[in-house]
Amino acid sequence: MNDRLITHLRHLDIAAPDYAKQHEFYTDLWGLTPVAEEPGISFLAAEGSPEQYVVRLREAQEKRLDLISLGAADETSVDAMAQRLAGSGVQLVSEPGTLQTPGGGYGFRFFDVDGRTIEISCDVAVRRHRRIEEQESVPIKLSHVVINSPNPERTRRFYERYLDFALSDTLFHPNMGEAMYFMRCNPQHHSLAIARGPHVSLHHASFEMRGIDEYMRGTGRLLRNDIKKVWGPGRHLAGNNTFSYFLDPHGNTVEYTTELELLDEDTWHPHLYDFSDPEVSDQWGTANPMDEFVAAESFNDPDRGLFVAPPV
C-alpha cells in the first residue's frame, strides 16, 4: 500500500526497578550495544540496524512498557497522522515537534486504545551500522513487537483504522476462538501482533538474527548462561520464522528469530491457522509444547503505565 503513513518499527522502551540487571542482560547476553547513557537511562542499538537504538531501558519503581516507536517517511506524514488521530478523539501525549532523544528527528506521542504510549517519528539521524558477520550471534534489528489485550478485536481495529496496519494472518483455537492477529505496516509479515490476554501488557519483543546458524548460536549462549527459556527453538507457520523465547530479568519475554517472511502484498490473502495443530506452532517439531506454562509466561504482568506517559 503506497498510501501508508507508517513505514516501520523503530524501538521498544521499557522500565524496570533493577536497572543494572536489565542493562547487563541486554548488553552482555542479548547482544545489544550501548550508544548513549545517563543516570538510570540507556539507549541500546542493534549492530546491524540503521536505527539509533532499538531498546531504551529506564530505571523506575515499577516495571512497565514505556512506549513503542514507529517510523514515518517525512514531516508531512507525521503531521497528517497527528491530525488524523486528534481529529478522531485519540488523546495526544505531545504535539509534533523536535525529538530530544538520540538522533533527534520530528515526531509526537499518543495513547492507543488500550492506553499504551506510541511514538511516531521521522528524520531521525541514521546510525552508522555494519554488516553482521558469519557466526556472529548478535541481533541485526528489532523484528517485531507483540502486545497483549483483553479485547484484541478492538485493538486490531484501532491499528487498522488509524495507523493503516493490515492483517497478515490470524491464529485461532477451537476452544478459544481467535487468539492472535499478525499485523503489518510494510511487506514484512508482521511488525506488530496483538494477542488475546487477561490484561494489557507486553507479550514479547523479537530480534532478528543474521541467519539460522547465528540464531542457534545466540540461543545456545542464553541456555549456557542459565537464562530461563520459555519456548523453542522452533519454526512457526505464520510468518515462517524461527523462534527461541527467553525471559529477561524482569519477566519480559524476548525472542531471537530469523527469516521472517516477506509478502507480496498485492496477492497476499490472510490465513486462519488453528494452533491446536502442532505444526502451526512449530513446523520442525523441535520446541517444547505450547502449553499453559508458555501461555502464562507470555501474559506478563499487568502494565502499570496505561494512559500515563513516560517521563522520557
From TrEMBL:
Pfam family, one: Glyoxalase
Cross-referenced InterPro entries: Fosfomycin_Res_Enzymes, Glyas_Bleomycin-R_OHBP_Dase, Glyas_Fos-R_dOase_dom, VOC_core
Domain VOC, residue spans: 8-123, 141-259
Gene3D superfamilies according to UniProt: 2,3-Dihydroxybiphenyl 1,2-Dioxygenase, domain 1
Name of protein: VOC family protein
Lineage: Bacteria, Bacillati, Actinomycetota, Actinomycetes, Pseudonocardiales
